[in-house]
Design goal:
Elements lengths: L1 H9 L16 E5 L3 E7 L8 E6 L2 E8 L18 E8 L10 E5 L2 E7 L17
Antiparallel strand pairs: 1-2, 2-7, 3-4, 4-5, 6-7
């Protein structure tokens, strides 16, 4: 039972490995009738530290967060920043047109907008009602 609780609390930043855990970016996924949007927290990364790839119906964000430390004579009393390679993949219910995907990176947040194909968007049409 102990590993269960360790994993549970580590996801919230607590537990024995919280400070030395590998970096895993938090990602929000939102959806409208026209598109999917993924917003990934990538604090401290430069635009060359990660990439976005599309393979059929899977979009992947992967990269590496390097931990830069300035060594001092005193050393560190505690290091809580996480680092390491990461990869997050999301399967969507349609094939993605790679040429239509847009990505932007501002203030440590990567935003990826994936337009839905026209055939998967709801076709709402108002039907005229005849009156006598």
């Amino acid at each position: 039972m102990h590993p269960f609780f360790s994993d549970f609390w580590r996801d919230f930043g607590f537990g024995p490995l919280a400070g030395g855990a590998a970096f895993r970016p938090r990602i929000d996924v939102s959806e409208t009738d026209e598109e999917l949007t993924l917003s990934a927290e990538l604090p401290g990364l430069e635009d060359g530290d990660f990439e976005v790839t599309v393979d059929g119906d899977v979009i992947t964000i992967k990269g590496e967060k390097k931990l830069a430390r300035e060594e001092t004579a005193e050393g560190y009393a505690r290091a809580e920043r996480s680092s390491g390679e990461f990869s997050r993949s999301f399967r969507v219910p349609f094939d993605i047109d790679p040429d239509s995907v847009k990505a932007s990176y501002r203030n440590g947040v990567l935003t990826v907008v994936v337009p839905k194909p026209v055939e998967s968007q709801p076709q709402v049409r108002t039907i005229p009602i005849e009156t006598a």
